[in-house]
Amino acid sequence: MKNLVVLSVLLLSLAACGGGGDAPTPANTQVDFNTFVVDEVNSTTETGEPVDINETDFSFTEDETAFDSVL
């Protein structure tokens, strides 16, 4: 169940990232996936802007409790 909620949040976040302007490429594009998702869930508002992740290189860990703080 937890994985389904996390996957739903991720898919909704990605769906909100339509095309866009020419934003500069960030210097460091490697991000811990778990940290990114938790930060996004904690900062989500009804009128929030989409987050550009096109140039982001996610790293993954096998932590089963990674999203416990947002569920």
What can be said about this structure in brief?
34% of the residues lie in helices and 8% in strands. It is an alpha+beta fold and 71 residues long.
Walk me through the topology.
Elements: H1 2-15, E1 30-32, H2 33-42, E2 57-59
Parallel strand pairs: 1-2
Describe the structure.
- The protein is an alpha+beta fold and 71 residues long.
- Helix content is 34%, strand content 8%.
- It is built from two helices and two strands; from the N terminus they run αβαβ.
- Strands 1-2 form a two-stranded parallel sheet.
- The longest helix is centred in the first third of the chain and has 14 residues.
- The radius of gyration is 13 Å and the shape is globular.
- The chain starts with a helix and ends in a 12-residue tail after the last strand.
- The model has no long low-confidence stretch (mean pLDDT 74).
